[in-house]
Design a protein that fits this description.
By secondary structure, the protein is α+β, with helices and mostly antiparallel strands. The chain is 21% helix and 22% strand. It has a domain at 249-326. Strands 3-2-1-6-7 form a five-stranded mixed β-sheet. A three-stranded antiparallel β-sheet has the order 8-9-10. It has a three-stranded antiparallel β-sheet with strand order 13-14-15, with no helix packed on it. A hairpin with a 2-residue loop joins strand 2 (97-106) and strand 3 (109-112). The protein is globular, with a radius of gyration of 25 Å. Keywords: Signal.
Length: 373
Amino acid sequence: MAAMPPLPASSPILLCCLLLTGALCPAARAARFACNATAPRASTCQALISYAPPNGTATATLAAVRALFQLRSHRALLAANGLPLSTPPTAPAPTPLRVRLPCLCSGGAGATFQRPTYRVRAGDTLDAIARGAFAGLVTYQDIAAANNVSDPNKVAVGQQLWIPVPCSCDPVGGQPVVHLTYVAPAGSSVAGIAQEFGSAEETILAVNKMPDAKGLLAGQVLDVPLRTCGSAISNTAIDRNLLVPNGSYILTANNCVMCGCSSSTWQLDCQAAQGLSSSFCPAAKCGDMFLGNTSSTSSCESRTCSYAGYTNSTSFAILTNITTSNTCNAGMAPMAQPAHSSAFRLEPAWLRWTELVVSLHVVLLCLGYLRQG
């Protein structure tokens, strides 16, 4: 058997570079969000995706983001981000942008249902699609597994791929929430993310099965539960599972009603959708009070005509009822940030101590190898 030819002089250097690159640039890890709901209605929900398009990509307008995620209406994108209904599709997309998508629980995990899909273009790779077009919300392994792609480096131009963004429908602490899929940027911390979204650090750590806040990595995909506003919606209404987090609104009752959520009261504020209600929208009133109107009955008590859902049992009807509230008591505050929460900040991967130690060992190994040569 012929002996193997000696390695060229540049091979040790090349090997060291490859080892060092691998140490400094850890591969993206697939995210799996727990989603254990099994009841027919509980196993599906509307989840939110936080999308921050990479610099230089074409998704710079609201219309482009809507097309990428195959959203059924421009208004749905505006509602998820609390933007005025008059905002045109050509408006620049804020970064990050919230995208509301259907989520399906199956096998203990959740993924966006049927959407989004992506048509492969010339020069595309699964990794470029995952990191570029979808900004790291998924990994190329996720896309390959969901579409039965045996070789991630070989995808056909024109091939339609389902992009399984992780999501969840599970309640947290016994309370209904809206789950936000969020990619942690470099320089962020679990404490900072919790404060930004009105959550608690312990909640984010528990939901994501993280032992401590120091384990957060740049680019890690997190499940961030968002508190939702309470409502007076009837259990018999079609939209009885309506969940609206702070800073957004939803169009319901065939676009006749717009319901928003504010952290000042943590109660749904629903009114007739101005400029959208067509002639078939029934009147929404509580006696002589219109939907959303409030009147004071005493110095500390007020009455509101609240939205109670809609039905189509015999005919399209918008349900309402009178709710009373004590205006002398402050509304519930968002989930507080614990005082003892760690403020450990996430640094870029190449500054983390573990990577520095590994890199030092690689450098010493390479120097020893070169000295022997």
